[in-house]
């Protein structure tokens, strides 16, 4: 576990440091700062500076400690793809492939993700933007699960009175998101 040097409103020593910042929305991260310019920029951003760590100390840390610090590392599989231009990149192996969520040959309006986004837009009009993200209880988890299963049965039966496929997706997203928030309070 990293012990951040407490920030007392003073700029750390000159040179490169990792700065732990907490945004006013509650999220936190560790950012690399190249020196005074970046440090002064943090004071103008919507953040609270939590502390800092000298780059020399960071280099001495084990990889696991670096990850626990909420610092970011660039993953490297050791494999390379080389393009005609000469550009080299790490391969896509083992990485999320979001582009595969859009099947080829399906018009934009018929894409499942488009239909899902349209459902979310209708929900915003009916309730409010991100209304579903207020869920925070076991009762609400059960409601998501019950609704997902009902929509699955309607989809399986071929009912076309609603877009049951995307209703299933919405309820699973609601369940999984709420469950995550409840387990990580």
Q: What are the key terms here?
A:
alpha+beta, 185 residues, 6 strands, two-stranded antiparallel ribbon, disordered N terminus, 2 domains, 41% helix
The chain-level structural class is alpha+beta
Number of strands: 6
What value does the Rg take, in angstroms? Answer: 23 Å
| Percent range for β-strand residues | 15-25%
Give the low-pLDDT segments: 1-16, 34-50
Layout of helices and strands:
Elements lengths: L4 E2 L10 E7 L4 E6 L2 H9 L2 E8 H6 L2 H6 L11 E3 L5 E3 L21 H15 L11 H19 L7 H20 L2
Antiparallel strand pairs: 1-4, 2-3, 2-4, 5-6
Helix pairs in contact: 4-6, 5-6
Explained architecture:
It is a single chain. By secondary structure, this protein is α+β, with helices and mostly antiparallel strands. It has 2 domains: 5-68, no CATH class; 98-183. It is 41% helix and 16% strand. It is built from 6 helices and 6 strands, in the order βββαβααββααα. It has helices at residues 36-44, 55-60, 63-68, 112-126, 138-156, 164-183, and strands at residues 5-6, 17-23, 28-33, 47-54, 80-82, 88-90. Strands 1-4-2-3 form a 4-stranded antiparallel β-sheet. The protein has a two-stranded antiparallel ribbon with strand order 5-6. Helix 4 crosses helix 6 and helix 5 runs antiparallel to helix 6. The longest helix is centred in the C-terminal third of the chain and has 20 residues, at 164-183. It is extended and about 55 Å long.
């Amino acid at each position: 576990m990293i012990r951040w040097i407490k920030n007392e409103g003073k700029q750390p020593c000159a040179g490169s440091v990792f700065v732990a910042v907490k945004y006013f929305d509650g999220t936190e991260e560790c950012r690399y700062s190249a020196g005074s310019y970046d440090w002064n920029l943090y004071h103008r951003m919507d953040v609270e500076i939590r502390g800092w760590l000298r780059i020399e100390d960071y280099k001495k840390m084990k990889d696991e400690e670096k990850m626990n610090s909420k610092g970011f590392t660039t993953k490297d599989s050791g494999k390379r793809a080389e393009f005609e231009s000469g550009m080299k990149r790490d391969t896509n192996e083992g990485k999320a492939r979001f582009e595969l969520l859009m099947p080829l040959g399906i018009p934009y309006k018929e894409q499942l993700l488009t239909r899902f986004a349209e459902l979310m837009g209708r929900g915003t009009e009916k309730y409010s933007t991100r209304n579903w993200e207020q869920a925070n209880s076991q009762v609400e988890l059960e409601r998501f699960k019950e609704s997902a299963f009902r929509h699955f049965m309607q989809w399986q039966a071929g009912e076309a009175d609603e877009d049951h496929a995307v209703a299933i997706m919405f309820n699973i997203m609601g369940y999984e998101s709420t469950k995550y928030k409840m387990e990580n309070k």
